[in-house]
From TrEMBL:
<dbReference type="InterPro" id="IPR028082">
    <property type="entry name" value="Peripla_BP_I"/>
</dbReference>
<keyword id="KW-0675">Receptor</keyword>
<dbReference type="GO" id="GO:0016020">
    <property type="term" value="C:membrane"/>
</dbReference>
<keyword id="KW-1133">Transmembrane helix</keyword>
<dbReference type="InterPro" id="IPR000337">
    <property type="entry name" value="GPCR_3"/>
</dbReference>
<dbReference type="InterPro" id="IPR050726">
    <property type="entry name" value="mGluR"/>
</dbReference>
<keyword id="KW-1015">Disulfide bond</keyword>
<dbReference type="InterPro" id="IPR001828">
    <property type="entry name" value="ANF_lig-bd_rcpt"/>
</dbReference>
<keyword id="KW-0812">Transmembrane</keyword>
<feature type="domain" description="Receptor ligand binding region">
    <location>
        <begin position="1"/>
        <end position="169"/>
    </location>
</feature>
<keyword id="KW-0325">Glycoprotein</keyword>
<dbReference type="Pfam" id="PF01094">
    <property type="entry name" value="ANF_receptor"/>
</dbReference>
<comment type="similarity">
    <text>Belongs to the G-protein coupled receptor 3 family.</text>
</comment>
<dbReference type="InterPro" id="IPR000162">
    <property type="entry name" value="GPCR_3_mtglu_rcpt"/>
</dbReference>
<protein>
    <submittedName>
        <fullName>GRM6 protein</fullName>
    </submittedName>
</protein>
<dbReference type="GO" id="GO:0004930">
    <property type="term" value="F:G protein-coupled receptor activity"/>
</dbReference>
<keyword id="KW-0472">Membrane</keyword>
Length: 170
């Protein structure tokens, strides 16, 4: 059955051997990861952490970022943290605590869903660390307001990736 997706960015869907009749109108996450590496390098960062929502989107996005950063060179990954699918109470405070273990890696690359992004920003605010981290977020954050509403101080200065969009007249 031929399928055309307007939102599926998972890189494995680009395998024509497995998904012969699949096509998409958005680029795969591997392109996003390359763009994020370019942003990190343009900012002059050489030491960053990554944060991913557990699951295909987050984990494969971070994997693509790490792969692209190795190819580009000059970038060290301080740590890669995974947010569980069903986080327990206090899980996001632990995430912030882990990020602080390598506190000189103030840049954090996020491949996470909207809810996880919001809860990470809330945890940073509660830990009195608004403004400590500089976030580079994937398209799940993009131009959405929901993840940052009321948490603007913690998200201040974030750079997010979003595929180019255009309105089709009519």
């Amino acid at each position: 059955i031929p399928q055309i997706s307007y939102a599926s960015t998972a890189p494995e869907l680009s395998d024509p051997g497995r998904y012969e009749f699949f096509s998409r109108v958005v680029p795969p996450d591997s392109y996003q990861a390359q763009a994020m590496v370019a942003v990190v390098r343009a900012l002059g960062w050489s030491y960053v952490s990554t944060l991913a929502s557990e699951g295909n989107y987050g984990e494969s996005g971070v994997e693509a970022f790490v792969h692209s950063s190795r190819e580009a060179g000059g970038l060290c990954i301080a740590q890669s943290i995974k947010i569980p699918r069903e986080p327990r109470p206090g899980e996001f405070a632990k995430v912030i605590k882990r990020l602080m273990e390598t506190s000189t890696a103030r840049g954090v690359v996020l491949f996470a869903n909207e809810d996880d992004i919001r809860r990470v920003l809330e945890a940073a605010t509660l830990a009195n660390l608004s403004g400590h981290f500089s976030w580079v977020g994937s398209d799940s954050w993009g131009a959405k307001m929901a993840p940052v509403q009321g948490l603007e101080e913690a998200a201040h200065g974030a750079i997010t990736i979003l595929p180019k969009r255009a309105s089709v007249p009519g």
